[in-house]
Amino acid sequence: MLYLIIALAALGIISAIFGLLSHNKEGGNDVIVKKGQDCGSCDGNNEKCEQTCMMEAATKPIEYFDDEELDRFSGRQSGRYSDEEAEAFREVLYTMAQSEVKDWTRSLTLRGISLPDQVKDEAFLLMNGD
């Protein structure tokens, strides 16, 4: 029984020493930051990356791509656009840089705007670099 008490006391002392040594000079804990993917590197294959970026984007102000006129379509289902209305989305899509398409579709989602079915394939092709 005495050996058990001595072993526990020694373990406590060793733990206290390691705890004191693990603090940096400012008194805070050293934090190891694991570098992960940032939203610019999400390639669509990692759902967690895409979901994290969407949640991160939801906390920031919505970015517009000179497409404020599309806000009138907020709440409309993607299959309920006329060809003329879908053309308004195409006009915006083909005036932006290819690298902006993913951010634009994210912006539309955050604004409650569904991309028309007539334009989805074109947008996904541009996002994937095809």
Description:
The longest helix is centred in the first third of the chain and has 20 residues, at 2-21. α3 packs parallel to α5. The chain starts with a helix and ends with a helix. The radius of gyration is 26 Å and the shape is rod-shaped. The chain is an all-alpha fold. It is built from 5 helices and no strands.
Radius of gyration from CA coordinates: 26 Å
Distance between the termini: 73 Å
Overall pLDDT confidence: 81
How many distinct beta strands?
Answer: 0
N-to-C SSE string, H for helix and E for strand: HHHHH
DSSP helical segment count: 5
Taking pLDDT < 50 over at least 5 consecutive residues as the criterion, the unreliable ranges are 31-35
The major beta sheet can be summarized as: none
Instruction: Provide the helix percentage.
Output: 40-55%
Assess the beta-strand content as a share of residues. under 5%
SS-derived structural category:
mainly alpha
Shape: rod-shaped
Key terms:
rod-shaped, 5 helices, 49% helix, mainly alpha, 130 residues
Short description:
By secondary structure, this protein is an all-alpha fold. It contains 5 helices and no strands.
